[in-house]
Amino acid sequence: MEAMTRTEIRAIVAQHKWRDALFVALGILALAIGILTFVALFVDMAIDGFGRLSVDFFTNFPSRRAGQAGILSAWVGSVAVMIVTAAFAVPMGVAAGIYLEEYAPKNWITDIIEINVTNLAGVPSIIYGLLAFGLFVYGFGLGQSILTAGLTLGLLILPIVILTTREAIRAIPGMIREAAYALGATRWQTVQHHIIPYSMPGILTGIIIGLSRAIGETAPIITIGALTFIAFLPPSPVSMAAPFLSFEWLMSSFTVMPIQMFNWTSRPDPAFQANAAAAGLVLVIMTLSMNALAIVLRYRLRKKLAW
Question: Is the pTM of this model over 0.85?
Answer without folding.
Answer: no
